[in-house]
Every structure is written in C-alpha cells, then in structure tokens.
Amino acid sequence: xxxxxxxxxxxxxxxxxxxxxxxxxxxxxxxxxxxxxxxxxxxxxxxxxxxxxxxxxxxxxxxxxxxxxxxxxxxxxxxxxxxxxxxxxxxxxxxxxxxxxxxxxxxxxxxxxxxxxxxxxxxxxxxxxxxxxxxxxxxxxxxxxxxxxxxxxxxxxxxxxxxxxxxxxxxxxxxxxxxxxxxxxxxxxxxxxxxxxxxxxxxxxxxxxxxxxxxxxxxxxxxxxxxxxxxxxxxxxxxxxxx
Amino acid sequence: xxxxxxxxxxxxxxxxxxxxxxxxxxxxxxxxxxxxxxxxxxxxxxxxxxxxxxxxxxxxxxxxxxxxxxxxxxxxxxxxxxxxxxxxxxxxxxxxxxxxxxxxxxxxxxxxxxxxxxxxxxxxxxxxxxxxxxxxxxxxxxxxxxxxxxxxxxxxxxxxxxxxxxxxxxxxxxxxxxxxxxxxxxxxxxxxxxxxxxxxxxxxxxxxxxxxxxxxxxxxxxxxxxxxxxxxxxxxxxxxxxxxxxxxxxxxxxxxxxxxxxxxxxxxxxxxxxxxxxxxxxxxx
Lengths: 243, 285
Prior knowledge:
A: alpha+beta, Gyrase A, domain 2, 2 domains, four-stranded antiparallel β-sheet, B: mainly beta, Cyclophilin-like_dom_sf (chain B), Biotin-dependent carboxyltransferase family protein (chain B), hydrolase (chain B)
C-alpha cells in the first residue's frame, strides 16, 4: 500500500515527510520500510533518518540546494519501494512489579476507572504493545496498543521526579521511564529492566516494530531481577516473530 | 591536565554533539554557539568541532597542569591569565600552574575555551558532549580534572588573529524559516510572529528558551513528531518555546518556525530579558 506523502523543508538540511494524521500499524510498517531503503540508497548524503508515529525526518550532511529536486529523488525511492520487505521482529517480555510501593497512582486510577487493581494489572499486562519509535528520553519507547479501558489523562500537575523504571499511563499511551525524569503520567508499577544501557553495543535492546509484553512479578522477584540486571546478567525473555 | 578550581554558573565540555543516535531518543547536545566554538578551535589550528569548554554568564577558574595553547571566543567575560588580561580570538600560550579566570560579563552569554587538540574527557556514543543520563557528568564541578594532550612541536603563529564579525553577539534579528505547522496558523498569527518583538524569559537553558510574549493560539497539539534544535514550538497556552541543543528528539506541540543554523548561534548568546524579532526567510531551496 502506498500513501500520499507530504514533503516539507525543515530548516536548511532536513526534509520532513508526513503520512496521514493517524497512529496505525500499517503506517508504521510503511515508514520502517521506506526508512530502511533511504538508509541504503542515500547513506553517503545523510547524517541521520528518524521517525515518529506518522512522520520521518531525513537530515542531510549538507545544506539542501534545491528542495524540489531532493523531494522528487526521495519520492521516487518511495514509489519504487518493494512491498515485500518482511522484517522479523521480537516480542520482549518485560517484568513489572505492580506493588503499591511502585504503583503510586494505581489505587486512584482503578477507582477512577471503576476497576479493581487486579483488573487494571490484568488489562495492562495481557496486551501486546507495538513499539512505534524511541523518543522523549534516551530509551523511552512509544508504545501502541493500550486497552481503551485504561486511557487516563495525564496528571494535572506533573511530578518533579518519576523514578527510573516507572511504568505509567498517559492519555492513550503507556510506557516505561528509562531514567528518572519529571513526568505527568500515572505511575502504576516499575520494571527492573534497563531500557537504555551504554555498556551494550546497542544501547536499547528493542527497536521500532518489535513488541513488548509486560509480565507481573512479585516484589521479591522484582528485587532478584534487579540484582541480575545491575550485574548485567539478566536475560530478557524474548520470542522472534517472523513477519 | 586542567584542574577546575571553580566551575562557574553552568560550565560543561561540548563538541558538535552526537547526531546519529536520535533513533534511541538521545538528544544531539553539543556547543550552543557553533560559530564561536568553531572559531576558537580554528584559530588554534584544530578542526572546528573538537571538544571545548562552554561557560555561561560567569566564567570558571582553571589551573593548567601542563603547557598548552588556548583560544577563547564568544562572550567576553573579561578573561585573565593569572593577573594579566587576555584577548579573545587569539592563541594564548599557557604555562604550568597558570590560572585562567574570568571577571565581568561584557558581551554575549556563552564563552568558549578551546585547547590544542581539544579536551579529552569521557567520550560516549562518539561525542564528548556532556548530557545528563548519557555522560557521567553533565556539569563541571570543583576539582574536576580535564584531560588535555601535551603541547607537541606544533607551531602556532602567535600573531594569527582573526578579524571577526562579532555583531551576532548583540544581534536583535533571528532568522527563521516556516516550521512544518506554520501554514496552519491564521494570517493574523503569522503577522504577529513576523512583526512582534519577543523577549527571552527567565526559563532559558541548553534545552530550550521560553519567550515572554504569548501568541493567541487555537492549534491543537500534533501527533508526536521529530523536532530539531532551533524548532519554535507553540504550546496550547500560546507560549513560544525555542528548542536548543539539548532538546528532546520528538515533540507534540505545533512547530511554527525553524531557526536558521546560524540563528541558533545568535539565540545561544541571548539571556533573560533580551529582545529580538524573527525575520522570516523565503522557503529553503
């Protein structure tokens, strides 16, 4: 499937490419396929390519002398793209402790949603989330797939400090804070896993297109896993899914 | 080695940043004013993007534990070696135990110190630029020791100095292009952006400069999308935010303007209360 893309200059060296104004798996896959192709064909000219839900930025090493010419080069690459790119992706199982000690907003959220805490945990951990992109903070995964029953507005006053590993819900999104940071999302648990680790060849284990599933663990299991993570020997449960 | 006797208000080691790790959510970071930092390096015969010391508003106090040649550029913070005043934009030889210190701020906001071959502090993801959560330190602290290489036989022409155009330190014009959402603004809002004067608020940092004046706003937030240093965002309350070098990689506010790359340098030399206007340039290309 091909979309009608919009191309806009973004400063002197970048072009912003936009897909329809929606968050959808098909758009993500179209972006990932196009991004891969741009990388291969234009690697020498580009500083980087990065994407979000429905947009892709193509950042050149040099100033763009003729926007229209670059635009038609890129669009030709888009139209020529083979649609049969099948990417293998990985489903990562992320342990989360939903104990009250971490889930600072779990009680309030469950009352607001007229659900028991167990139901909130069940709805949050049974879903399989798709990783759309990484942004906001180093290693922060933007996930799609939160159950509508858990949609909760961001807190009116953001917390000055949300702990590293905090698992939280903001609007129609859920995510894990990779480092301590100010934040306005509703915190329901914490994961002992590091989402951004500079000691690894790839600082983030997961990439866009992969899946995340949360697995509830007890406080004791959490502490055990945390020790293994800090020692750098915890192996995440994962499963390769062929596209 | 260089020992930090006093760190100053906000001092860090920066090069031109880590550009290729945006897909991990890692900000570019890097020197706020590339022109000044590049100039300080080039005068020493360094490539423009070597790691320099960036100081903000107040200078650091540094003791050199080896001989080297340094060059200062950007804001004039009344620099001295021991008790002698020194010039900006000139190679300066320093000897063992010399102390570089600073006094009154005379112009600009950010001053750069380049050393022969650059500062060699912790390098992460291809860059020396300090950033919280990426490098171990994000600011210099008292008694930090900064690694530099010993002066080699490299000969610097002591009389090499560059006639600089320093006007950008005081410029009240910030050149911009339309941002991706500019055309969604009403003509009256577009006119306001073009003709009004704006003031840098007290909320200005390496991450972003918030402006005092508000712009009437009826645009909805956008689906989270990439942003760049120099992107001007418009929040639902009508606040304008100019993103700077430490900005996040993506954002959800409409991007109404985009500063030219040289205007990011101009903005980097502005501080609380400084006034400016945006000058909208024709479309790129």
